[in-house]
UniProtKB/TrEMBL annotation:
This is TetR family transcriptional regulator. InterPro entries: Homeodomain-like_sf (IPR009057), HTH-type_TetR-like_transc_reg (IPR050109), HTH_TetR (IPR001647), NicS_C (IPR041474), Tet_transcr_reg_TetR-rel_C_sf (IPR036271). Residues 25-85 form the HTH tetR-type domain. Keywords: DNA-binding. The keyword DNA-binding applies. Pfam families: TetR_C_29 (PF17938), TetR_N (PF00440). Residues 48-67 bind DNA. GO terms for molecular function: DNA binding.
């Protein structure tokens, strides 16, 4: 539970009502944050709107008023979590950096974001269980992701023009290479860590892995 949701839940009922009435955006955000927790813990099928209402000291009726249904709320959670990473990526200002440094910044950001945002990894894993059914319903998620691909593509072309990257690199392949490693070490950290007896959250291990994926990506695109 986020601090904002926790604070709201501990307020007297009349205060909560006043907050809801005077700040609908805050109420909506509180519901979203509580929904993230519920969906991460229970999945889409197991999540209960009653539990989300309890987390926000609101009502099912209020949640349905803002989001329409549990499925629509889940879709809004997907949009929010994808939007968080895509929005930050768009502010990395890769165009101001030499191509090699720009790629390194993008890889390091992706690594750190996945490491610090386990909820994002869990929700994406849950969505894959549902075969991407709800992502298909959101052109916004595709649009945000295409912007990132465009920025990465421009960086690769700059590097090719400057002679530091080899020609003919597929931008989606590079994106997949970066994302897959950063995602897997979080999504599979419990099983991988137990089977191979490695502490993936250990700071030295994380720094070694971050350096490794940066080197792997750069070696691939530099040829």
């Amino acid at each position: 539970m986020t601090e904002a949701v926790a604070n709201l839940a501990t307020q007297p009922l009349e205060v909560v009502r006043k907050v809801r009435k005077n700040n609908p955006e805050k109420t909506r955000e509180s519901i979203l944050q509580a929904a993230i927790t519920e969906f991460v813990q229970q999945g889409l099928s197991g999540a209960r709107v009653d539990a989300i209402a309890e987390r926000t000291a609101t009502s099912k009726r209020m949640i349905y008023y803002y989001f329409g249904s549990k499925e629509q709320l889940y879709l809004e959670v997907l949009v929010k979590l994808y939007g968080d990473i895509r929005g930050t990526e768009s502010r990395l200002d890769l165009a101001s950096l030499p191509p090699v440094l720009a790629i390194r910044r993008l890889v390091e950001f992706t690594f750190d974001h996945h490491d610090r945002n386990v909820d994002f990894v869990r929700i994406v894993s849950i969505e894959n269980i549902h075969y991407g059914e709800y992502v298909k319903q959101s052109p916004v998620i595709r649009q945000m992701s295409n912007v990132v691909l465009d920025t990465l593509g421009k960086t690769l072309r700059r590097g090719e023009e400057e002679g530091v990257f080899r020609p003919g690199i597929d931008v989606l392949d590079v994106h997949l290479l970066i994302s897959s490693f950063c995602f897997y070490r979080v999504s599979n950290r419990h099983t991988f860590g137990e089977i191979f007896q490695i502490d993936l959250p250990d700071e030295q291990v994380k720094q070694r892995h971050k350096a490794m994926i940066c080197e792997a990506v750069l070696r691939y695109i530099q040829g």
